[in-house]
Amino acid sequence: MGLTIALIIVAIYSTALILIFFYSLAQLNLLINYLGYKKRNEEAPKFNLLDPKEIPFVTIQLPIYNEEYVMERLLDNIAKIEYPKSKLEIQVLDDSTDDSVIETAKRIEELKKEGLDIQHIRRENRKGFKAGALKEGLAIAKGDFIAIFDADFLPETDWLKKTVPYFKDEEIGVVQTRWGHINRDYSTLTRIQAFALDAHFTLEQVGRNSKGHFINFNGTAGIWRKECILDAGNWEGDTLTEDLDLSYRAQLKNWKFKYLEDVETPAELPVVISAARSQQFRWNKGGAENFRKTVWSVITAKNIPLKTKFHGVMHLLNSSMFLCVFIVALLSIPMLYIKNTYGHLGWVFEVTSFFIISTIILFICYWFTYKSIQGSSFDNFVDYIKLFFTFFSVALGFSLHNTVAVLEGHLGKRSEFVRTPKFNINSIKDTWKGNKYLAKKLSPNMILEFALMIYFLFGMYSAVPLNDYGLFPFHLMLFLGFGFVFFKSLTSKA
Fold first, then answer.
1. Coil, strand, or helix at residue 63?
2. Which pLDDT band, with edges at 50, 70 and 90, does 69 fall under?
3. Which of these, 2, 63, 386, 452, could form a disulfide with 93 (CB 3.0-4.6 Å)?
4. Which option is the CATH number for 56-300: 3.30.1360.120, 3.90.550.10, 3.30.565.10, 3.40.50.620?
């Protein structure tokens, strides 16, 4: 390897490491915000729902597409929501193309007979996908406030009573609640998804919201002021994360968002890696698309402070961290050989300490979010250590898949909205096998993921002849992560 190539590799590797370090510093700042906010007890103006004159009209929207396994559970759950029937309507925005439509229509008719104002809304095509369905429903919605639930969400009966009152403050455009997980302990895959989502719904959402920085409506388990949606330009289907897009457009127009960490809305996590893949791809590509679409508006906005701009840019770059992580991983083995070939470049390995510091920062941040939900006992801390490194390894294993998504987003390559299959999995006894919505094809990335597993096995082997074990733990986690993703992808076709 020539010195010029070695220097190029060092430069790219160092840049990616420094970007990861800045991301970890942003997370640390959010942790400080989060811990500071936990000590405050804020009083907010609220509607008095005991006074009939103060009860606003609410529309619940249920955007669905081929949800055979969870439709009955969803409709039965929503029917139990406690709110005056004269002030509530339910829109089932059904874009389904399979036989689930018939059963859904039948159950809706039964609920109508029970006195519910519930409509079964069908479109001729799926133009705009979920965003298109929400926009079409909004055009005929009777409510001043629009609650949205995906098909796998199960709000508590008093959900509206806990969220609607906050709209007494006329500046609030959205109230978002924290996601819960009904099948958290189903498998390693569900545990690490719950772990990552819990960090987002505690550290990130509270950390940003408590200081007035931009947060995002999470696509579900939240409620919008209809006026806010329309003022921000309505739903648009030009990104895969229409929720993040509308959230930023609304906040750029000075609408406030209210995040309620204490209101948990249970939902089902994907139990098969192919389903997790499609969800991860959509979220990460959508994040990059929104960076491309929105970042300049954030940077040039005259109505938001510099710190809010910084956190906004870092928020929009969240998914792009996978690209940085993948670059660091891929170049770590050449870097090992560069270090042992060009002795005078040994100093650049001080840069590697940025990755260690970043990992320690994230370890601390995630511990605070973990203990806020799971508790802070010694046993919980031991469980946390195991879960953190499992999560870290699997996140590394997803880095190729998510990097492809991020690159497509930044380059403007369009793709259709691929829904995440729902399974109605509540306990270990339930099975996903036989689910007709599972992807029939194996991901083409699997071949590369297997190759990367072997590549990082070679990285571990390289430590022996070079007598340099500094990157051995990193290569071990990469080997295990890509191995997990590859073999789980194979077995999810069983």
1. strand
2. confident
3. 63
4. 3.90.550.10
Report DSSP state, residue 178. E
Tokens at residue 123, please? Answer: 């479109």
Catalytic residues: 95, 243
Which pLDDT value is given to residue 179? Answer: 97
Confidence of residue 434 (pLDDT cuts 50, 70, 90): low
Share of the chain above pLDDT 70, in %: 92
CB 423 within 8 A of CB 407: no
CA separation for the pair 121, 132 (Å, rounded): 12
CA dist list (Å): 418 to 66, 129, 161, 437 = 12, 9, 33, 11
User: How does pLDDT run across 357-370, given as a tens digit for each residue?
Assistant: 999 999 999 999 99
Confidence (pLDDT) at 435: 56
119-151 exposure pattern, b = at least 16 Cβ within 10 A, e = fewer? bbbeeeebebbbbbbbbbbbeebebebbbbbbb
Query: What are the sequence ranges of the domains in the chain?
Result: 3-35+319-491, 56-300
Q: Which amino acid is at 251?
A: Q
**Phi first, then psi: what are they for 258, rounded to 5°?**
-115, 120
Q: Annotate 17-47 with b (16+ C-beta within 10 A) or e (fewer).
A: bebbbbbbebbbbbbebbeeeeeeeeeeeeb
pLDDT of residue 4: 87
pLDDT at 43 exceeding the cut of 50 = yes
Mean of all residue pLDDT scores within the chain:
91
- pTM for the whole structure: 0.92
Residue at token pair 């597993």: 453
* Helix residue ranges per DSSP H, 304-435: 306-316, 321-341, 352-374, 378-397, 399-411
